[in-house]
Write a structure and sequence with these properties.
transport; 14 helices; two-stranded antiparallel ribbon; disordered C terminus; globular; mainly alpha; 335 residues
Length: 335
Amino acid sequence: MFEGLKALNAKILKMHSDFLVYDDFVNMAEGDSVRFCLNYLKEKKFPTIDSFSDIYEIEEFLEDYRRRQIKKLQAFLPGKYSDFIKAYMEREKIEKIVKILRSLRMNKEPRVDKLIIGAKSIPFKEESFESFIDNLRDTPYYEYMKNYKSSTDEEALFSIEMNLDKFYYRNLTESVKSLSKKDHAEFKNIFGVKIDLLNIIWIYRAKKYYDISPEEIFNFTIFGGNYNSEKLLHLSYLEEEEFEEEIKNSKYSILFADGRVIRTGRTSKKLLYSIANRNFRKTDGIGKFMSFLILLDSEIANIERILEATRFGLSKEEKLRYMIVDRKESEEVGR
């Protein structure tokens, strides 16, 4: 425990009390236009959000909201947590890189404002897939992309995404190794679970939908969760039915409960949300902050989902099924 932890947790509780709740999404689901949802968000939470003209601008706004929320709490944290914060915030850069690569692969203009790595602005407009990767040569990301930059294979982008995910979570797990045993255990309770769920979804999809060897499946698994490398290797070599049975007998059994088939991963996001929500309420350690990060991600994801579902004209019932919330109504469909 560090001096100032009580002040940090008090600030977290206040910020969390301002989060949107399930009933807010029910109210937004009543509307038949994105403008209706934006007006609701303006009244309830974001005074300036209704000035935006498209989903892209709203996504940028929500990313900035995430960043500002974390910075508010960063001032309460001692320097020993700076490596974790830095590693956690790398996600924003990686998501921008992937978004740019996807657009360039489809010969579209990337809908990204700017990409700053270190103190350097990385050019991406009017670039090719290959030249953009070359522009990243002096960054830590280049090593995980360079072998695919000249590839026209459709799998190249997939391989880059998987490699960047491994890079991100490896750095995240390394960032907490110098923390106390208790802090490290709290990290495992939240981000260790997140890594486990990512691995389960990846291994299952690889076995069910793709013709991928066990060696390649294992190669793309992410280390740092509650499953060690031996366990991940074991899971990678199981047949699909054996793998499903093993997960059914684990603490992640809900992923396959009631005949579920993992498709979008929504059930795993809901499970992680539930675990973080429960942990947020019971811990007074650094796990409250780590749980808050997951809950913040969930709030933003729910906003983006309700806006997207509204844009596509889904019914109220369909919109609510895609929310990542602790309500039975959202469990009817969706995986």
